[in-house]
Structure formats: structure tokens, C-alpha cells
Amino acid sequence: MGTSRVSRKKLPTANLDQVSEDIRHTFQSKDAAREKTLRLCRETIRHSANGIRALHRQEMKQAEQLLRSARDLLEEVRRTLDGHEDLFCSGLVHDAMKEYAEGTITLAMVTGKKVPDPAALNVQLPAYLNGLGEAVGELRRYLLDHLRRGDVAKCERVLAMMDDIYAVLVTMDFPDAITGGLRRTTDMVRGVLEKTRGDLTLALQNRELENRLASFLAGTGEAADVLPLMRMPRGGPNSTGNGSTEEGQPG
User: Fold this and answer.
1) Which has the higher per-residue pLDDT, 243 or 169?
2) What is the sign of the dihedral through the CA atoms of 61, 47, 120 and 185?
3) pLDDT score, position 205
4) Can you list the domains of the chain with their CATH numbers?
């Protein structure tokens, strides 16, 4: 028997049209919020990355402006996702907050300011901690730039800050589901820290050796004689480099 004579208004499914319309409206609103959030988060990441680049070029004012723009974009993300908490906890928002935290924390440290806390940045805790860890990589680059300039005191100060960050991260022994994959970030920080410590130690040892050699040569007055000898082929002053003297006799 067909259902053409059945009054649909009397069926238990009579309200499904309204239910489906409500769901469709909710999904449309959520999809529009998601699309806008994707654009805003990409812009946040781009501004944060450009801020970090400006920082390494010593353009601190430009870095501050770019990071302020990133902060404004994140505020718009929050307004866009009001009522869409499930989207707010998505990975894209986490990445945008992490990049902003990384840039702001790095800028604070290299300019001698206190590290801002999560409340000051208005970012989620996992994003803050991962951004703090990522900042160590930027500090390494900053340290190497100063090492090439010979500013050893600055390098040691930056290395101490990197040590402090690792000391904090290594104590956050919680599941990755809570920390946003912090364990992986902490492992990266440990590797960067040890490599940087080794690079700085080697540079300091080379500098000490150079200073001692310069002091020795200056004290003996032999710099003019010793330096040419250091460039000579093995075998002595009369060596041609092939194991025989200029007279053709064995060296």
C-alpha cells in the first residue's frame, strides 16, 4: 500500500524538515566562519613570520608593527569563532597562535624585555609553550649573528636564555593531547641547545688560541718570521714540497 493517502503531518517524522533546515543553517554558518578563519590564520602566520624576519634584520619597529597586526588578526579570529568552540580548538588556530607567540617571545628576549605570559598574549597554553620552544631556534640564529660579530658576552646571555626555556619545557611531562605535541618540540629544543653550546664553545676556544698566539708573537717579536713559516710547505725553509731540498738532496 502506498503512502499517498497518509497525512505526513501526523507521522513521527513530520518535524524532520524543520530539523534538517536548522542543521543546514548551522552548518552554513559554521562553514562561513571556518572559511574566514582559514584566511585570518594564514594572514596571522604570515605577519608573524615577517615580524621574525624583520627582527633578524634588526628592524625592531617593523617587527613590532607586524606582530601587532598578527595580534589584531587573532582577535578577529576570536570574534569570528564566537559560538563555534569546536573550530576554535582546531589545528589551524593553534598554529597561528603558536607563530604569534614565537615571534612576540623572541622579540621580547632580544630586546631585553620580560617574556610575556599566556594571558598577556591571549593565546592557549599549548600554543604558548610550543611557541616558546620554537623561539629557541630563532635565538640560535640571533646568537650566531652576534658570534660572527665577535660579541661573545651577548652570545653567552642568549645561550643562558635558551637554557632557561629548555628547563621549563622539560618539566611539562603531560600527554601530547594536552600539550599540543610539546614533547616533539622539547626534543627539538634540546638538539638546538646542545648544537649551539658546542658551536659557541668551539668559537671561544679558537678565540683563546688566537689571543695566546698573538700575545706570544708580540712578546717574542717573531711574528714577521713565524707567520711566513706557517705558510711554508712541510720539510723546512728549503723544501720544494716534494721531499727534496733545492740542491736535490734528500730532506
Assistant:
1) 169
2) negative
3) 78
4) 33-224 (1.20.58.2140)
